[in-house]
Design a protein that fits this description.
This protein has a domain of 161 residues. Helices cover 2% and strands 61% of the residues. The protein has a 15-stranded antiparallel sheet that branches. The chain has a two-stranded antiparallel ribbon with strand order 3-4.
Length: 332
């Protein structure tokens, strides 16, 4: 991945209103070689406790979907303005336009699938308002949109021609999110606390007909949830970032009756993270964290369960000079 992002921040007044204007352009180039092999003759093992010394087996020749490579180019521009009306109220609005171009090559697929390309032009927006009941606290409400192009993972399976072609012809899925939250700075503004309730609605979920193998944008998902976080310094040397998110995502519309009220795949209800660092002295810093991801499903029928898991990280960093950033080593 290669990315270039340029941002511009401007502050100015129009009469009694104070503006904070943010704008920018960004360009991203991603390439993915998705070549992989299935194996035959390998020893069986437990998925959660695999045997590293089992018989490895022999690689098979890749299938058409196992021998693909792809690239995507994204170019975007955005503009957002936050207007301070007085010390109690602010309003904000923003818009973004981007172009997503995708190209995939599958050299051993059927002729009409060996080279596929698509371009999506996307426009998203966000509006909101903020109320400051006190100097160090705020209550806000925001609503905005986002998109999921069909090829956002940089791969489209070419195992079934009808499915592959229908996916490439589909416009992006569209999401609309409404969020209401509160923020407060405590401990002389060293620690920031935040909590919010939100609801995301996907109004055109991709649904693949099991008979024709054709995908259409005819489903919907509702995902209400709650999140809370704490960020800042507990002391001058001890920093912390902690967050918890609960999402109740369910399919609310589909042409497949067995999927109604099912959970979208790889969408855990619960997730939690805790990261903390401590400055031993002006040059040395140590840190560690714990990250929890709740159980989820690997398919839309909700028959394949992905177990919940924890991940633990540790790091140490050394500041080379007074003006340099930390050079660190981490262990997961």
């Amino acid at each position: 991945m290669l990315t270039n992002q340029t941002d511009l921040l401007a502050k100015f007044n129009t009469g009694a209103f104070e503006h904070t204007l943010a704008s920018g352009v960004d360009f991203t180039q991603e390439n993915r070689d998705f070549t992989r092999n299935a194996f035959a003759g390998q020893g069986a093992t437990n998925f959660l406790n695999p045997d590293p010394y089992r018989a490895p087996g022999a690689p098979l020749a890749p299938t058409a979907s196992q021998l693909t490579n792809a690239g995507a180019t994204t170019a975007g521009v955005f503009l957002a303005d936050q207007v301070k009306i007085n010390k109690y109220f602010e309003v904000l609005g923003g818009a973004r336009y981007e172009q997503f171009r995708f190209q995939q090559d599958a050299p051993i697929a059927t002729a009409n699938l060996q080279s596929l390309a698509r371009t999506d032009n996307l426009f998203s927006w966000r509006v909101g308002a903020v109320f400051h009941p006190t100097e160090n606290s705020s209550i806000y409400i925001m609503r905005g949109t986002s998109f999921n192009p069909s090829a956002e993972q940089l791969t489209v399976s070419v195992a079934t021609p009808a499915t592959a072609l229908s996916q490439f012809n589909l416009p992006p899925e569209k999401n609309e999110t409404t969020e209401i939250g509160v923020k407060a700075d405590i401990m002389d503004k060293r620690l920031s606390l935040a909590a919010a309730v939100f609801k995301t609605e996907k109004t055109n979920l991709r649904v693949t007909d099991p008979i024709t193998n054709v995908a259409n944008l005819i489903g919907s998902v509702e995902a209400p949830g709650f999140e809370a976080s704490a960020t800042g310094k507990l002391t001058d040397k001890w920093q912390i970032i902690a967050s918890y998110t609960y999402v109740h995502a369910r399919i609310t519309k589909t042409t497949l009756p067995g999927q109604i009220n099912n959970v979208p795949f790889i969408t855990p209800d619960n997730s939690f993270s805790l990261w903390t660092t401590y400055d031993i002295d002006p040059k040395w810093q140590i840190g560690g964290g714990a990250f929890f991801t709740g159980s989820s499903y690997g398919d839309l029928p909700n028959t394949a369960v992905v177990p919940a898991y924890w991940r633990y990280d540790a790091m140490a960093a050394y500041k080379l000079t007074a003006k340099s950033t930390y050079s660190s080593t981490s262990i997961t």
